[in-house]
Design goal:
This protein is mainly α and about 130 residues long. Helices cover about 55% and strands about 0% of the residues. The protein is built from six helices and no strands. The protein starts with about 25 loop residues before the first helix and ends in a 6-residue tail after the last helix.
Length: about 130
Amino acid sequence: MKGTHPMTEHSNPAVPAAAKEPSGAAKQFGDFAPGLVGFTDEVLFGQVWERPDLSPRDRSLVTVAALTTSGNTGQLPYHLGLAKRNGVTEAELIEAITHLAFYAGWPRAMSAMAVAKQVFSGNQDD
């Protein structure tokens, strides 16, 4: 699976240089923060997300839960979309956020649910 994550396809040496598209991190930060881009692409998505002991589906569910519980909704649109691409259903994501209300707090769950509603209704790109 190495090199198959949407954020790291550009780093796959089997892909010709002309065909490589910049990652989301590279598009967002480019030359402004190359160190952060490198860690995001090569370590987080190139190594951590590729570890075999959690499936991409489970890793996505854990990530959505972590973002929800920490109140970091800025990254939720991307990760909700990735979770869906990794096989987590909208119903499962809604249920997970609902469940987290009891552990992370109502305001965090409500904020995450507002993001999920926007993403799932197509009002925001995932």
